[in-house]
Amino acid sequence: MSQAVIAIHGGAGTITRAAMDAQREREYTAALEQVLLAGQRVLADGGSALDAVTEAVRLLEECPLFNAGRGAVLTHAGTYELDASVMDGATLNAGAVACVKRLRNPVLAARAVLEHSEHVLFAAEGAEAFAQAQGLELVAPEYFFTQARHDQWLRARETAGMALLDHDAATLAAQAAKPADPLDADKKFGTVGAVACDARGNVAAATSTGGVTNKQVGRVGDTPVLGAGCYADDVAAVSCTGTGEMFIRTSAAFDVSAQMRYAGLSLEESARRVVMEKLPAIQGRGGLIAVDRAGNVTLPFNTEGMYRGVARVGEPVNVWIYG
Ligand code: ASP
After folding, report:
1. Taking Cα atoms as reference points, which of 311, 237, 252 lies closest to residue 287?
2. Which sites are catalytic (predicted)?
C-alpha cells in the first residue's frame, strides 16, 4: 500500500508577490486548499486516483479564479472554447474533449468519454452531444463569463493583438493599472490540473482549460492532447500548464514518464529536464505537476510562479504560489 497523495495546479506564469494583493492571495490559497481537501477526502475514503483527479478538476472548473469552466478566458471572437482530458495510469484508458462551448464541466465529459466511449477525443458539437447523451449539464455561454477575463481579453486585443496565456494577460492589466511598477507582472497560465497516486499505487491525471486569452477560434492547445498536456501510465501521471503549442511539440507530459522508463531517471529529474531544458529550448513557458507510483511528487515551472499544492492522506495540505 502506498501513501495516497494528490497534487493540483491552477496555472503558471509571471505571478509575483508585488502584483498580488493580500486579499487576492488569500482567495487563491483558500480555493486551492479547499480543492486539495476534497481530493484528499476521496483518497482517504479509498477512492481511486482517477476519482480524486476528476473531482479536484471539477471543483477547479467551478471556481471562477481559474481559467477552466466558469472563469475561462475568451477567444479572439469573444467566445468560450474549453478543452479537458483525463487519463488512468492503471489501464491507459483516457478521454478528452476539445473546443466545447456549452459543457459546464468539461472534465466530466472527458471522464464520460473515458468510461463510455470506444473513442478517446471528441471535439465541438460532437463532444457536446455525447456529453448530453451521458446526462451531463449544458449551460449558456454566459455561465462562463467573469468581468476579470473579459477585461483581460479587451486588453489583450488592444495591447498585444495576439493570444496570451491567462496570467500573462493579467500581467498586462496589472502593468497598465500600475505603470510606475512595471515589474509587477502577473503573467500566468490559468489552466487547472490534478495528479494523484492512490493507496493501490495507481496514478491518474486530469487537465482542463479555457486555453489562451485571445486565441483564434478553433485553436486547440495541449490540454486535451494526451501525452502533451496530460498523461498517465504505470510509471507516472502528469498535468501541464503553459504555452500549449510547445507542450504539444515536445510531448511534454509523456516525456516525463518516458525518460523515467527508458533512461531510468527519477520523477524529479525527468520533469526538471522537460520544464527547465526541453521547453525553454523552443521558448516554451509554464510548468507541470507529476506523481509516480511510489507517491513522489514534483511541481517544476520555468515562470515566476505557479498556483500549486499537495495533500498526502493523513497530513496537512500545502499550497504555494511563487517560486
Ligand atoms: N496550456 C493551455 C493552452 O495552451 C494554457 C494554459 O496552461 O493556461 O491551452
Report:
1. 252
2. 191 (nucleophile)
Q: How far is CA 39 from CA 45, 96, 286, in A?
A: 10, 21, 23
> Is 242:284 a contact under the CB 8 Å cutoff?
yes
As a whole-number percent, the residues of the chain with pLDDT over 70 amount to 92
- 220 CA → ligand 1 middle, Å: 9
The 10s digit of each residue's pLDDT in 74-87 is 999 999 999 999 99
Asked whether residue 220 is marked as a ligand-binding residue, the answer is: yes
31, three cell numbers: 480555493
Q: Can you read off the three cell numbers belonging to residue 142? A: 454566459
Model pTM score: 0.92
Question: What pLDDT score was predicted for residue 185?
Answer: 33
For each of the domains in the chain, give its residue range(s) and CATH number, in order of start: 5-322 (3.60.20.30)
Task: From the CA of 83, give the closest atom in ligand 1.
Answer: 9
* Cα-based torsion angle of the residue sequence 300, 306, 312, 313 in order, rounded to the nearest 10 degrees: -150
Q: Is 222 annotated as a binding residue?
A: yes
13's torsion region: left (phi>0), alpha (psi -120 to 50) or beta? left
Distances (CA, A) of 191 to 10, 79, 239, 293, 315: 6, 17, 10, 24, 26
CA atoms within 13 A on the CB side of 241: 39
Helices (H) then strands (E): counts for the chain: 9, 12
Q: Which residue has the cell 478543452?
A: 83
